[in-house]
Amino acid sequence: MEKSTSMPLEAENLRAAMRAWSAGVTVVTAAHEGQRHGMTVNSFTSISLDPAMITISLKTGSRTHELVTRSRAFGLTILSTAQARVSDVFAGRFPEVEDRFADIQVETLVTGSPLIVGGLAWLDCRVVETYDAGMNMLFIAEVLAARSFEQGQPLLYHERKYWQLSQLL
């Protein structure tokens, strides 16, 4: 059998390929000992309905990663098309914004993690397992509470731009 001599994949080649993947936009938030932070995340998946479990991936060393690790809980807000600016703020696209929660209305459910008002749905989660995944940490979490608002359309991300659903097929 011949040994593989493939070259390591360059990060930019993977980024370019992943731009072809369309995804909904979420913000993951956490609070611990008076601190709160959040970040825009599209690496979110439902993995089980019984028990209710999801997974997210957060960059190791980010403020949100640190708060989720310490609190063992997080909130996830599925954003609507009206919340593109919210996504940009939590993605860090406005470095002058020190408090990402300024001018953002939030509520809490079970864990105390902030959930963003105006989203299509909220998930309030407790971390049950973590896995190192390269530059990221994969969090598997039990969904303790969920609320769906059934208003508006989801904010979608594709080819570095925001999109919305269309009724045209």
SSE string = HEEEEEHEHEEEEEE
Number of domains: 1
Q: What topology, given as strand order, has the largest sheet? A: 3-2-6-9-10-5-4
CATH topology: Pnp Oxidase, Chain A
Radius of gyration: 17 Å
Structural class: mainly beta
| Shape label | globular
The CATH homology group name: Electron Transport, Fmn-binding Protein, Chain A
Any overview of this molecule?
The chain is mainly beta. The chain has a single domain (27-163), classed as Electron Transport, Fmn-binding Protein, Chain A (Pnp Oxidase, Chain A). The chain is 14% helix and 43% strand. The protein has 3 helices and 12 strands. The protein has helices spanning 11-18, 63-71, 84-90, and strands at 23-24, 26-32, 35-41, 44-49, 52-59, 73-78, 106-107, 115-116, 121-133, 136-148, 156-158, 161-163. It starts with 10 loop residues before the first helix and ends in a 6-residue tail after the last strand. The model has no long low-confidence stretch (mean pLDDT 91).
Question: What secondary-structure arrangement, pairings included, does this model have?
Answer:
Layout: H1 11-18, E1 23-24, E2 26-32, E3 35-41, E4 44-49, E5 52-59, H2 63-71, E6 73-78, H3 84-90, E7 106-107, E8 115-116, E9 121-133, E10 136-148, E11 156-158, E12 161-163
Antiparallel strand pairs: 1-11, 2-3, 2-6, 4-5, 5-10, 6-9, 7-8, 9-10, 11-12
